[in-house]
Design goal:
There is one protein chain. With 225 residues, this protein is an all-alpha fold. It has one domain. 76% of the residues lie in helices and 0% in strands. The longest helix has 41 residues.
Length: 225
């Protein structure tokens, strides 16, 4: 299990460092029902990662491991495809990066967060977790690594739970600051939001490139072994 955790912790950290979802969480916390909406947003995010990872485990299943206990050939091909996609995303993100702070803007959909109902807040987080262009390949890659490890089902579930927990720390941190920080939390979270708006695109481009290259390396290793 240790080897699998070593393989997926990087993916989990990349999921956790998601500037847009973190910014969305900060905006949710600023709504009149910040405590409730923030908790629901965190719950929706955790649910989204769990569902996507769980579906990957179920689909890959025993077929992900070869007779020798090593990942099957098609798992290597899958990682090659996911890695190539991430590198393409990295190039697109880098091309879109703002050259000046004045050009950095948050997506227009964030302006409507104040008007979302609690149910829609939860649904928004679920979508950001399970349908996000960055999270999907990273979570699928983590799920495929877990499923192809040959571990017992209980250890696979535990590994996925650890992945989800670490992948949620980026949202749980501002929620914790809000719940325990009192009035000072608004200033702290406001600074985080401004920083994320300025650097979101560049951060995403770097993450896409780093983990795209990792997946390509993993895929090449499986295919050529």
């Amino acid at each position: 299990m240790g080897a699998v955790l070593g393989d997926i912790l990087g993916f989990a950290a990349a999921v956790a460092i998601s500037p847009l979802p973190i910014t969305a969480m900060i905006l949710v916390l600023a709504t009149p029902r910040g405590r409730l909406n923030g908790s629901l947003f965190a719950g929706g995010w955790i649910l989204g990662l769990t569902v996507l990872g769980g579906v990957t485990l179920a689909v890959v299943g025993p077929a992900g491991a070869s007779s020798g206990g090593q990942p099957a050939l098609w798992v290597g091909v899958l990682k090659l495809v996911l890695g190539a996609l991430l590198i393409v995303f990295a190039a697109r993100q880098w091309h879109r990066r703002p050259t000046h702070d004045s050009e950095a803007q948050l997506p227009k959909w964030m302006s409507g967060i104040d008007h979302l109902t609690p149910v829609r807040v939860c649904g928004l987080a679920l979508g950001l977790a399970a349908l996000n262009a960055k999270n999907v390949p990273l979570t699928i890659a983590a799920g495929a690594s877990i499923a192809s490890s040959g571990l017992p089902v209980a250890q696979q579930i535990a590994s996925l739970a650890i992945f989800v927990l670490i992948g949620s720390l980026g949202l749980l941190a501002p929620l914790a600051v809000f719940l325990v920080g009192g009035d000072r939390a608004k200033t702290t979270l406001g600074g985080w939001k401004d920083w994320a708006a300025r650097h979101n695109v560049a951060i995403m481009a770097v993450l896409f490139l780093v983990f795209g290259l990792k997946l390509l390396g993993d895929g090449i290793g499986i295919v050529t072994s």
